[in-house]
Amino acid sequence: MRQLSASWKLLRAVGHALGGWWTIRFKFPAMTPAQREAAVQQWATRMLALMGVQLTVQGTPPAGGPVLLVCNHLSWLDILAIHAARHVRFVSKAGVRHWPLIGMLSTGAGSLYIERERRRDALRVVHHMTDALRQGDLIAIFPEGTTSDGHGLLPFHANLMQAAISADAPIQPAAIRFADAATGETSQAPRYIDDDNLVTSLWNTLTAPPLLAIVRFGEPQSAYGRERRSWAKSLHEDVQQLRRETF
Q1: Contact (CB, 8 A) for 121 and 49
Q2: CA dist 84 to 57, 164, 230, Å?
Q3: Separation between Cα atoms, residue 154 and residue 146, nearest integer Å
Q4: pLDDT by position in tens, the chain (length 247)
Q5: Where are the domains of the chain?
């Protein structure tokens, strides 16, 4: 029965993804930026529900920009959960842009792309992020640079945080955790690390018991004269504390 239920969820999720593609392709050109943001948030909320994932938001999401959101990174599911809590523009690896269907959905949601293999590309992305923040955007990054197993936090990379300093914008820490909805215990079903692949992670998520996606927002903070490395170290501690508070 679990396999049959997962197959039904997958079929509906694919249909919903195609609906998102249609909206971006044919409706977005006539929408205002605010209408697009609302559409992305509604689409992400519905996608979570179709996959059997209930969203729990703790704390207060940013009401508006400019804000740079920093969060721990566990899975591809992080992006859906955060989008459902509050539309933001993610900084994603460049390869995502070329993924079938997912690439168009990501681009339509406003993602900025970085080529992680090219060290100099970070400078280009920081310039784009700075301009976007100055225009009042909400941008989200995963400063660990990759997904972790959820048992702890990897060190934070500080380069992209320079955008908040240059734009004189606040940074808001956040933390995410996935849990079994019945027990509240941390679930590894959506994990996407090391040798995991997207298809396996997706199937494990669909075959798991109902899940909770817990997104906890901290308080926005200014640099207060800190350079990016010292700010990144402080934010690492803040996100770690937010993680503990999701339990």
Answers
A1: no
A2: 9, 23, 31
A3: 9
A4: 789 999 999 999 999 999 999 999 999 999 999 999 999 999 999 999 999 999 999 999 999 999 999 999 999 999 999 999 999 999 998 888 888 888 889 999 999 998 877 778 889 999 999 999 999 999 999 999 888 887 889 999 999 999 999 999 999 999 999 999 999 999 999 988 877 888 899 999 999 999 999 999 999 999 999 999 999 999 999 999 999 999 8
A5: 2-245
- 């590309």: which residue's tokens? 121
Instruction: Report the alpha-carbon distance of residue 26 to residue 18 in Å, rounded.
Output: 12
CATH class of 2-245: alpha beta
Residue 213 CA to residue 223 CA, distance in Å, equals: 29
| 108: nearest Cα among 187, 41, 47 | 41
